[in-house]
Amino acid sequence: xxxxxxxxxGSTTTKYAxxxxxxxxxxxxxxxxxxxxxxxxxxxxxxIADELGGKVEIxxxxxxxxxxxVVGDFLNADLTIDEITAHARGAVEINPEVDTIFEIxxxxxxYISIENTHPLDFDMNKVCAAGTGSFLHELANKYGxxxxxxxxxxxxxxxxxxxxxxRCTVFMESDLVAYDQLGLxxxxxxxxxxxxxxxNYLNRVVGDRKIGQRVMFLGGPSLNKGVVAAFENVxxxxxxxxxxxxxxxxxxxxxxx
Length: 257
What we know:
Elements: E1 2-9, E2 13-20, E3 25-32, H1 37-52, E4 57-64, H2 68-75, E5 79-80, H3 83-94, E6 100-104, E7 109-115, E8 118-125, H4 133-142, H5 150-156, H6 169-181, H7 186-206, E9 215-218, H8 225-235, H9 248-256
Parallel strand pairs: 1-4, 4-5, 6-9
Antiparallel strand pairs: 1-2, 2-3, 6-7, 7-8
Helix pairs in contact: 3-9, 5-7, 5-8, 6-7, 7-8
């Protein structure tokens, strides 16, 4: 079977998506980059070989993400594209009507406005880690909560989410500690954290830019139902949260080859 490979090499995680000629996603995976993009890419390629072996023939390879040039050179890739283009391409393929993309990554966040299936305006926040995936992980570990299922269950059960500073991780964290010492329930702390991430993203990344009617939410924290629910409450509308959202940049990259 002829297939196309898209690899998204981020600072925190490296993702790949393998698609067939009808743009169906047939294989995906993601691993932590750990500052070793080439080694991690070799691992992923070995994973494809082990899993799919002689069943597929890779016809084209494209890379995106912060490590796109390094890995692109290493693989002699056919194409190297930026993350904005990759995410927009993947999002529009899944839902042609999407007009806004919110993406919160491991280390940075993006906002993309789409018109007629093309990115029109975008912004990236590289300055502050508040509300990024790695920050959520760190705090979950600190409170002994499993980020995968437990975190969202606790957050969704919050009755009165606390109000945290949105300025920066350090302030968010010290607010959490203060509320914790006051003996407030953990679920209200975690619920408050979800809201702080949402407000932080909307204030710092989106600012006064337009938020459309069909907003797609991508990146690690979009897998967390607590954060999704907080976004929907603040915006007063539902978000589009597609199934392969954790590899959507890689998917959009594969589509571009």
